[in-house]
Amino acid sequence: MRIRKINCRRTAAHAVEFAFVFPVVLLLLFGILEYCRYLMTLQVTDNAAREGARYALARTDTFQTLETTTTIQDYVTTYLQSAGMQLTGTTVLVYKSNKFGEPLDQNGAVVSTAAAAAAFDQTTFGDYICVQVTGTYEPVLPGFMALASSIPVTATAVMVSEGN
Predict the structure, then answer these.
(1) How far apart are the C-alpha atoms of 59 and 150, rounded to whole Å?
(2) Closest among 90, 75, 96 to 136, alpha carbons compared
(3) 164 pLDDT exceeds 60?
(4) I need a surface site. Which of 70, 74, 119, 158 has the fewest CB within 10 A?
(5) Are 164 and 118 a contacting pair, CB within 8 Å?
(6) Domain range holding 135?
(7) Residue 1: inside a domain, yes or no?
(8) Three-class SS string for the chain?
(9) pLDDT tens by residue, 118-145
(10) How far apart are CA 117 and CA 122, in angstroms?
(11) Cβ pair 120, 129 in contact under 8 A
(12) Rg (Cα) of the chain, in Å, rounded?
């Protein structure tokens, strides 16, 4: 028995298949990249809050260190910038808190806003210091895959003061 080779020519089949598959692959690739970029932003913001809290803990004795809330905020902002974060509207709050991150006044009572809380240097041994970083993440392609044009990002770090 003899097998006959049939010569089938499909000259444009590859181009048509590529035209159908390429947009789907591109959509998937950009979606993965955007999601990874968002996760990186969350992680770096969390690290900045933690580093700010650690920095504040070591400097609660402001008579010796001459540190203020502004220098702690600048430290966190510099950390975010050195990591290449491009959060917009970034605010950094540093205040005395309870272990849940709720702001406390000088007497230890919970207050409604961090602006009414006692300063970080008013903590004593065993008190908590909270650093809260908030900002807005903006995707590279906001209309892509029905993403919002901006996503709020918040990171909070609470640590126990061992100074004063």
Answers:
(1) 35
(2) 90
(3) no
(4) 70
(5) no
(6) 13-160
(7) no
(8) CCCCCCCCCCCCHHHHHHHHHHHHHHHHHHHHHHHHHHHHHHHHHHHHHHHHHHHHHCCCCHHHHCCCHHHHHHHHHHHHHHCCCCCEEEEEEEEEECCCCCEECCCCCECCCHHHCCCHHHCCCCCEEEEEEEEEECCCCCCHHHCCCCEEEEEEEEEECCCC
(9) 888 788 888 899 999 999 998 887 776 6
(10) 10
(11) yes
(12) 26
- pTM (predicted TM-score): 0.80
144 located within any domain: yes
Looking at this protein, which amino acid is placed at residue 46?
D
To which residue do tokens 């990171």 refer?
Answer: 155
Condensed to tens digits (0 to 9), the pLDDT of residues 97-123 reads: 988 888 888 888 888 888 778 888 788
Look at the chain and report how many structural domains it folds into: 1
Instruction: Sheet containing 128-137: give its strands across.
Output: 88-97, 128-137, 151-160
- Alpha-carbon distance of 28 to 22, in angstroms, equals 10
- Single-letter amino acid, residue 29: L
Residues 57-84 pLDDT 10s: 887 776 666 778 889 999 999 999 998 8
